[in-house]
Prior knowledge:
The complex is a heterodimer of chains A (498) and B (129). Chain A has 11 helices and 27 strands.
Amino acid sequence: MNPTTAFQKYCDAFAAGDGAAMAELFTDDGVFEASSLDSPLHGRRQLETQLGIISNGSMRISTELRVALEDGDRGHFEGSYEAEVVGTGGKLDGSAHRIDFKFAAIVEMRDARIARLSEIFDTRPLHPEERQYVWAMNRRTPYWDGTVAARCKEWSVYNNMYFPMIYSRMPYEDYRTLLDGVTLWDVGLERQTQLRGPDAHAFLDYLCCRDMSTMRPGDCRYAQICDDRGMIMGDPVVLWPRADIIWISHGNTDITLWARGIAMGSDREVEVSEPDVAPLQIQGPLALDLLRKICPADLAAMKNYSCVETAVAGQPAVVSRTGWSGGFGFEVFPFSSARAMELWQAILDAGEEFDLKVTGPIVSRAVERGVTDTGYYNNCDMNPFEDLNARLVDLDKPADFVGKQALERILREGVKRRSVGLIFDAPVPRLEWFWESIDPRGNPGQVRWAVYSFALGKYIGIALVDRAVEIGEILKVDHPRGSCTAEVTTVPFTGRDD
Amino acid sequence: MQMARQLLEDYLAALEQQDIDAIESLCTPGCLLEIPFLEPRRLVGGREIGKAHREIFANLEQIEIALTGIAADNGHAIGEGRLRVLRRDGDSYDLHLAVAAETGSGDYRRISLYCDTRNIRRWSDKRIL
């Protein structure tokens, strides 16, 4: 096999998304370099995995080789690459998110296999801007510098803080890394509402619709907090890391403000505050292998939804078996953010051997697994009986709680809506705000989540619809680029290991 | 000597010496230069290419291109190497580079630089050298 034949075979295998076929072209110690990679790939195993991931992140791939020059075992090539990115929902104008660029490539052969393949091109067509600007009116997390260095390019605002969402990578690369490897997320914007004092536990139970009275130190528990009208304010994970500390690790609603107000108007002995705790999520099947290198706790013995007070990279921290991935992973809650970047770097260093990738939350995977995020302002105007997690309301629990009377009334009068899964019949754009839907009886609904499912190869969503809507029915959905139909289905869309 | 290889080597030598006259003399009216550091990235003809290089050189203290391999036939040449740049503001870059040159009938010539600019874009899509 000469360099030109080898490179052409590589291009064909890349277009087919066949990682094994690409790896087979290389020597055992073959090296692949590309301008879009942070570091070269070494050896057949890494080549098969990573080239398989990269190539499957695009579709309709075509490569045109315009110039092929050989000098013995070395080939020099010039050509053009055209493809569409999978999973972004396209551009605002409805066109496909394309990555078309010209490239030069160098191939070095040894024993009729590729010893080195280097692709050199400007990544501007892949990622036109390095990152968005942000404004000083919201806070940055203490890991900001790390996320910028990792080439975050798009942030959301969450708890008045910048939430790193999209990094300069194909969506499928992030998705696949979460399923097969390990990812690091800056979730410093997940704030902790800290409860301390003799009545802290009872006060927690009063705030939540779920029965929290059976919770004990070392436990974590997913909960829902409603207002006095029975509307969901948030769906936090509650941690009890130390006998005298309870943390309500909440989403995009200021639960601390809410809890402080309630505490001020009561005679409970409870201190409500927001400590300087900025969490990180380490998610994916290799999360344990990574974290055990820098954490002395017996992490392997930890059950799902448990937490332990320990140290991570020498810094006092709580580690919990929780996360937003819908799969295996941990969250790290350092007791202070004073040395946040040291912690960040220690995790990066520990993760190097596992090909750790810094990513945002993998929303497409979360929706596949039915993991959502319910806030007071986003995803609002919903009572917990209408949510996917209606089972988390314990109206019969011993203690009174905020919203109990309203929820009893809602049940008496009949719950009017329900959350269901949708499978769209056509590509849909990225969801920037709720889309209207109409069921076969003419009743309106709202699509509140919409993503591309890599597992199913289809666009999927979660909608809040009329109670009468049944599985298998077809809804009409209007979105900013037109209309489509969607079949109603159950949630989750995939199993934990799919 | 292969014409494309000669064009490639002459252009890189002129670039290193920051020799505008040499660059303009290489660039016939039909010459196309593709260079990722500029906006626009495709320049045509000696005058346009010379003007762009004047602007580049105004910011540069030193530019060095070290090719580690080159392959050519009569009409094409492609080289691989490193591009090292020291700007007048003190910033320096050391980048993986490929350069392709093509010669054809008439005054058609093409020089294409391949290099990733992601670490030197400085949060914008504007000119960077």
